[in-house]
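Continuing the batch. This is chain 6 of the set; chains 1 through 5 are on the previous pages. Same settings as before, nothing changed between runs. Recording input and output for traceability.
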Amino acid sequence: VQLQASGGGLVQAGGSLRLSCATSGSTFGSYAVGWFRQAPGKERDFVAAITWGDQDTTPYEDSVKGRFTIFGDDAKSTVYLQMNSLKPEDTAVYYCAAHSSGSYYLSPSYRYWGQGTQVTVSS
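Output for chain 6:
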């Protein structure tokens, strides 16, 4: 199982970025995929997740609801995180991960992780 995150960068407050998480073919549709972020000196926090199947769900962390959207592209085996109305407090390294078991909101529930991509939002 391989995941590769990309799309980070520097953006002004109020701007937008789209992060991509390219997955190996065996991952997409088999594992729920989550996005987490980690700011300097802080823990890795849940941002959003996407599940597949009859009960597709897309849970979000409260502070990003209405601003961020997670979605997948089956043809590209890629999960995206569209981030709008960015705020300086969104600055962090963003990681995507494949879920194994347990709560979607908790990082120990994810077994496979991609490398992070830096998002910096200037005020």
